[in-house]
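Milestone 3.1: sequence recovery, worked example.
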């Protein structure tokens, strides 16, 4: 599947943001912790979410979609996670903690996901060991034992490991204290979900979280938070293509670092409680130097989108990638083929903004956000571009082409 984009059209209108897939995925894993039904509202049917539901169903869960809500019941499950799907999405690693806590046994293939770095899972496994798992790793990861409470220090505030350990500790009547936790909004949303299911959690949204779990948790109806990365994609798309766009249904407090960076870069950049209004009529300015960091720093998932938008900014930009080592190279070479003045040096990229990019008919998405970045670059380039391997983009964007078409982009999908 590929996108064909005829660039150079301004974007005008509203771009609505749905629920965050990075919030829905751990919430789906969380449904494993109870025999009751869990309803997750505000889910986009992106392929990562569909795959995660499929994995749960293959383990024995019952699920159905009601509009944009997933209804899931995990009364009877199997602890052996088959290899075919799990290889596909990294989020399947989230199932280790909940399945181990519930059954004292889980055996899973090592997770896949974006090709953006080595992506080890040692922090997950070290934490699970502290919570009682005897872990063996060969072709599969196997955790066995009886979950118990403990103090766990995470050597890095990993989003996924924090979520995994929160879920595991919540199905145990003893007290666990997690130190050096990730504080991303998606982690906070999961902490609140676990509280609604019956766990006691103190320090929500902070690096030190105390959990007093329960032997049984109950069902819940929750709502996924808006997708801050999708919101930023629409914002950067407007910078690339020019126009006057309202990004709606988002929560700008979840990307305040980005808002501070962009407020003086373009004609209008205003945030509201649930929207951003961005106008670009004249060439935008560079944001200056940016380094990716854990929340509330500049998100690594926004980095490829920022780089694409800075290719045509007035001024020089240096972007340093601190989280995923392979995230800069592939896209930078492709942006270069579009006329960008861009140099990669290790985990740092330097961009001298040029007035315009030119179209390229041979772009290739190599990962989810990198693929989206090529689409927005092509929106601003004169002429027709093609982005191949667009299935990577569908992992995290639901009908991106329709949302872009709706604001005036000339984009179509070809098989
Ligand atoms: C999550 C997001 C992903 C985002 C990332 C960082 C989901 C489904 N995915 O991924 O979109 O880019 O947070 O914000 O929510 N690390 C280890 N050992 C581990 C775990 C992580 O060394 O056991 C390293 C990673 O290689 C990486 C860093 O820690 O360098 C951060 O990774 P982590 O926060 O775990 O990202 P994910 O949860 O995989």
């Amino acid at each position: 599947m590929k996108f064909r984009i005829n660039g150079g059209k301004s974007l005008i209108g509203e771009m609505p943001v749905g629920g965050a897939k990075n919030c829905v995925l751990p919430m789906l894993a969380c449904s494993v912790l109870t025999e009751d039904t869990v309803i997750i509202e505000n889910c986009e049917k992106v392929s990562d979410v569909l795959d995660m539901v499929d994995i749960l169903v293959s383990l024995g869960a019952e699920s159905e979609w009601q509009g944009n809500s997933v209804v899931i019941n995990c009364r009877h499950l199997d602890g052996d996670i088959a290899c075919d799907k799990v290889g596909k999405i990294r989020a399947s690693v989230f199932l280790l903690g909940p399945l181990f806590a519930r059954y004292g046994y889980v055996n899973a293939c090592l997770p896949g996901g974006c090709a953006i770095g080595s992506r080890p899972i040692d922090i997950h496994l070290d934490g699970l060991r502290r919570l009682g798992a005897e872990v063996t790793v060969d072709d599969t990861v196997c955790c066995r034992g009886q979950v118990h409470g403990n103090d766990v220090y995470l050597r890095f505030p990993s989003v996924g490991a924090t979520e995994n350990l929160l879920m595991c500790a919540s199905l145990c009547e003893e007290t666990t204290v997690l130190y050096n936790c990730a504080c991303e909004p998606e982690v906070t949303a999961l902490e609140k979900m676990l509280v609604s299911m019956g766990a006691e959690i103190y320090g929500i949204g902070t690096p030190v979280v105390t959990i007093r779990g329960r032997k049984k948790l109950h069902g819940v109806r929750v709502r996924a938070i808006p997708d801050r990365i999708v919101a930023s994609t629409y914002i950067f798309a407007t910078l690339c293509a020019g126009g006057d766009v309202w990004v709606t249904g988002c929560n700008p407090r979840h990307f305040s670092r980005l808002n501070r960076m962009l407020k003086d870069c373009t004609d209008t950049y205003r945030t509201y409680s649930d929207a951003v209004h961005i106008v670009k009529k004249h060439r935008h300015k560079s944001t200056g130097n940016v380094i990716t960091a854990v929340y509330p720093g500049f998100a690594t998932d926004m980095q490829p989108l920022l780089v694409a938008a800075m290719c045509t900014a007035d001024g020089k930009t240096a972007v340093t990638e601190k989280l995923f080592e392979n995230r800069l190279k592939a896209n930078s070479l492709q942006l270069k083929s579009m006329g960008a003045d861009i140099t990669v040096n290790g985990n740092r990229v330097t961009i001298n903004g040029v007035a315009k990019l030119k179209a390229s008919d041979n772009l290739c998405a190599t990962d989810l956000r990198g693929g989206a970045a090529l689409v927005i670059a092509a929106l601003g380039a004169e002429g027709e571009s093609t982005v191949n391997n667009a299935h990577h983009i569908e992992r995290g964007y639901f009908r991106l082409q329709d949302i872009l078409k709706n604001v005036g982009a000339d984009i179509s999908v070809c098989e």
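Residues 123 and 363 are 35 Å apart (CA to CA). The longest helix spans residues 228-241.
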